[in-house]
Amino acid sequence: MNNLFLIVLLCTFISCKKEALESEVILKKEIVKPRVQPEGKPTNIDSVVVISLHNKVLKDFYISTNYRTVWQSEKKRKIILAELLKSDEEGLNPEDYNLKTLYDFEKRATTLDSLDIAEYDILLTSCLQKYISHLTNGRLNPRKLYKNWDLKENYIDLNATVALLLQTDSLAYTIEQLKPNHIVYKRLKKALRQINAFPKDDFKPIKFTKIITPNDTNPSLIAIKKRLIYWKELQPKDSLSLVYDEETANALKKFQSRHGLAADAKIGAGTIASLNFSRNQRTQQILVNLERWRWYPKQMGKEYIIINIPDYKLTLVNNNDTLRTHRVIVGRAKRKTPVLSSKLTQVVFNPTWTVPPTILREDVIPAILKSRSYLTQSNIKVYDSNGRIVSPYEWQLSQAKTYRYVQSPGTFNSLGMVKIIFPNRFSVYLHDTNHRDYFDKIDRSLSSGCVRVDNPLELTEYILNDEVNWNLGEITETLQNERTKFVNIRKEIAFHLLYWTAWSENNKLIFRDDIYNLDAALYDKLRN
């Protein structure tokens, strides 16, 4: 009977819809309300006390217990308290969970009267629900913060989850399973432990005056060497010189590599900016990235493509194994690449390119006004509302925004030779480019929102997964005829465009430039 009850609870935990909660999670309406049978000798709770808290999910939970306490087990109470106490390991704030009051109740647990027992039980349940909510969806709602983030909420039925925790004999393990289990989240937790092990710093900002190259002598080198020693790139020394020696150059290249900079040993403005980040700033950066990963899908899919926008990198994962990586170009700050989850649906060979409104307004129309020959040189055809071709010399500025502008397929096409589609409301996609030299740049925040992929034909061959009809030879032959062809993707491949700027790899802290300037603002919202 107990096993059957657990199975029912687990199914409820997975599939139930939820209702609105005062903490940041928006819950679906519950279809099945769990009926909780408190263990031990429960204490009755005055329903007025629960109702007065104006927390519907909490009220519904105690309706399911028939307004009786549930945390009679000292062992389970202490496990929950320990989890809340170490919530900082998840990048959360233990102060959010009334720990001082909870621990005070626990110290007096054997002498509490019935009113205090009820109050302790309600508070413990409420704080546990909040903690579960934060673990599974984060403290903040990205849908309210960003217009160009399209992430589905990680739905969880809090009451069914708490009921499951009450029944389990492995409470700590079950709570652990609620946490994001993606490798990046785990690496961020490791990064948080690593950065917390560093001592406090009191460095003053280093001013950039000119590029410093190996063998140069410069007064800033003392401060630079101290930073490299602090971050454990350079061995401590009894005395430091003003000379940029080989040992310092090698240490700096390691530092540059960890920060996504060109590992060329040149100390330029970008390197100085990264050196000027304090330990406290890097800690904040890790904390905001932990929050983001609580927003991201808990299940990425058996096979998926994941793109980290600030790292300019596409990774294809199958059964937790990384099979391919590709360099990418993403949207610049004024035309940001959105954050979203979708799935790959179609490949277009020799795609045409219909100019989107923003590029039309900011780029194409100004170029036409400078020279009507721009349209011919760019191989762009203009169509009026009746589908008639408008010649460059018939083109009128007053009608410019009513026309449709289509670039013909070919090597000169802005989308290159191939386009990979995933449904989304931003009309972005993966594509080739006619500027492949851009992939050699360190800063690849260059596009108008879509993502350009290096070596896209190899990726396309893998995605289509058809050695007979769509091997690289067949793909090349299709491209050579310059006719547009649409091919559906038969494999189930999830697609995730995400944003994170910190993690840990091989016991090293890794950071990337916050190219869209999101980190500091998010930290302020988390802590204020």
Automatic annotation (TrEMBL):
Do you know which Pfam families this protein is assigned to? PG_binding_1, Scaffold, YkuD
GO annotation terms (biological process) = cell wall organization; peptidoglycan biosynthetic process; regulation of cell shape
**Which residue positions are annotated as catalytic?**
431 (proton donor/acceptor), 450 (nucleophile)
Q: Which residues form the signal peptide?
A: none
Question: InterPro entries of this UniProt entry?
Answer: LD-transpeptidase_YkuD-like, LD_TPept_cat_dom, LD_TPept_scaffold_dom, Peptidoglycan-bd-like, PGBD-like_sf, PGBDSf, Transpep_catalytic_dom
What keywords were assigned to this record? Cell shape, Cell wall biogenesis/degradation, Peptidoglycan synthesis, Transferase
Q: Which GO terms describe its molecular function?
A: carboxypeptidase activity; transferase activity
Domain L,D-TPase catalytic, by residue range, is 303-479
Q: Which PROSITE patterns match?
A: LD_TPASE (PS52029)
Q: In which pathway does it act?
A: Cell wall biogenesis; peptidoglycan biosynthesis
The question of whether Transferase is a record keyword is answered with yes
Highest taxon, organism lineage: Bacteria
Query: Its family?
Result: Belongs to the YkuD family.
Q: Protein name, please?
A: Murein L,D-transpeptidase YcbB/YkuD
